[in-house]
User: Which sequence fits this backbone?
């Protein structure tokens, strides 16, 4: 059997570098926690083109603090141009998700996250760590699609498990979690001009989120100084499985009714997807971390973005006295 | 007479404050990135008895120089490593070259150190490998099992608040 030259080259490249595994994933959290009495500040951004000159972007500022060696807490403030004050007109039958229209760039709200590392099996060149996390959000946006995200789309809470294993050249991390969004109560503009806005309630679906992340150190080949710039590469598989969204509408003169599932569009129906997210990371002075990644369509698709989505992150630790 | 007594007590006090340890090498498990090493270094620097920390990034080890005239507590040192999110693999401590220790059991900062190994005689400048659950990983402890005597610690100081066994390295 003839082995393609590129496979041999890739294998040689992997073996040649004396790589240490990396678990500072750009898109997901590892089981490791923030050092105690350390404040981390992270600025994140996501952007994709919706066509017609519209670039949708989300930005977030995250404060992270190591309360104890095993417990970290995060506070995230998010803003985006993904939502209008009201749901699209004729929601949920049409215009879901609503594309190619102006949506103001606004503050979405705050969310909190706590992670507790309950297991550490550390050896000289390997470790196995496990953690549980819980998150809650006060965000309450007029979010078109069913797929929820607590950071910038929906209020609610979530919890889950993270397991990270690292050995010599290989690091892998698995996240499994649940998201339990609350209800959004708002308005949609009636399609008939002059009619009053229609009160609309949306119950976003309970969701399972899952990810499998891998990372490698490309440079330096051996650590000599804090001043060496680290270059890490990552590949993350990230996705969600969610149920049907339920929508209640109350047009003028009609009692509130639940829209039957057969009438709701795919973006609000039960679904799942798995995105492929390759990424590269630069760490300067062994502290300031810059992440760049691209979210690509893998299995099925998310209606909450248009592929490819570009992700950016910059993070710095402050070691407090 | 009273003046001489006060002078004598002050002299004794100053002897007690004199740290018996000059340096240590702390090997850390789970350090796989230079950012992780930096976190350990910053956690160690918070301790008031540490004068200098240098991280060996290739073999994740912290080389520590202790402050003179400060009480040294290796358990606090191990706790600082845990604060950074990692665990101590082993601690090798070097006695001060001018220490007055010549016995295989001595007291420093109300902590009794005793030789749990089966050979050697302490002298100023000796290197000790500290044993104990929080000062050494289980895997590492297993390696030195043969060298550790199964004997009970020598109770050379009854009033010690805790004891730390060690193996004499040189």
Assistant:
């Amino acid at each position: 059997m003839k082995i393609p030259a590129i496979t041999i080259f890739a294998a040689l490249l992997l073996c040649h570098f004396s790589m240490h595994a990396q678990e500072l994933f750009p898109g997901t959290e590892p089981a490791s926690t923030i050092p105690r009495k350390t404040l981390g500040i992270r600025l994140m951004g996501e952007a994709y083109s919706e066509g017609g000159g519209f670039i949708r972007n989300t930005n977030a500022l995250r404060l992270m603090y190591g309360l104890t060696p095993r417990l970290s807490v995060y506070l995230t403030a998010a803003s985006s141009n993904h939502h209008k004050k009201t749901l699209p007109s004729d929601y949920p039958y049409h215009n879901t998700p609503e594309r190619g229209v102006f949506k103001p760039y606004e503050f979405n709200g705050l969310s909190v996250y706590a992670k507790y590392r309950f297991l550490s099996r550390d050896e000289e060149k390997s470790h196995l760590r496990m953690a549980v996390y819980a998150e809650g959000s006060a965000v309450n946006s007029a979010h078109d699609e069913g797929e929820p995200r607590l950071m910038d789309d929906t209020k609610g809470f979530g919890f889950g498990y993270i397991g990270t294993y690292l050995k010599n050249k290989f690091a892998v991390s698995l996240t499994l979690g649940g998201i339990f969004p609350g209800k959004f109560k708002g308005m949609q503009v009636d399609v008939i001009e002059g009619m009053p806005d229609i009160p609309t309630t949306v119950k976003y679906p309970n969701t399972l989120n899952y990810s499998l992340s891998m990372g490698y150190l490309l440079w330096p080949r051996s650590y000599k100084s804090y001043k060496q710039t680290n270059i890490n590469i990552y590949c993350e598989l990230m996705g969600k499985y969610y149920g049907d969204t339920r929508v209640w509408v109350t047009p003028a003169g009609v009692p509130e009714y639940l829209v039957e599932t057969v009438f709701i569009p795919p973006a609000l129906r039960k679904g799942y997807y798995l995105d492929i997210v390759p990424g590269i990371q630069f760490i300067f002075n062994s502290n300031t971390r810059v992440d760049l990644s691209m979210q690509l369509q893998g299995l099925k698709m998310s209606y909450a973005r248009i592929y490819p989505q570009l992700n950016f992150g910059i993070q710095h630790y402050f070691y407090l006295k | 007479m009273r003046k001489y007594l006060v002078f004598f007590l002050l002299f004794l006090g100053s002897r007690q404050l004199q740290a018996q340890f000059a340096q240590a090498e702390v090997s850390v498990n789970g350090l796989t990135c230079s950012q992780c090493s930096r976190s350990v270094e910053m956690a160690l620097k918070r301790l008031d008895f540490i004068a200098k920390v240098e991280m060996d990034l290739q073999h994740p080890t912290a080389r520590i120089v202790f402050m003179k005239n400060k009480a040294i507590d290796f358990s606090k040192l191990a706790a600082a490593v845990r604060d950074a999110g990692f665990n101590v693999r082993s601690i090798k401590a070097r006695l001060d070259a001018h220490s007055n220790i010549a016995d295989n059991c001595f007291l420093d900062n109300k902590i009794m150190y005793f030789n749990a190994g089966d050979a050697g005689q302490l002298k100023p400048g000796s290197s000790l490998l500290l044993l104990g659950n929080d000062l050494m990983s289980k895997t590492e402890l297993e390696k030195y099992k043969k060298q550790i005597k199964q004997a009970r610690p020598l109770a050379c100081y009854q009033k010690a608040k805790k004891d730390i066994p060690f193996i004499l390295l040189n």
About this structure: The beta strands of chain B are 21-29, 50-56, 61-66, 87-95, 105-108, 111-115, 127-130, 162-168.
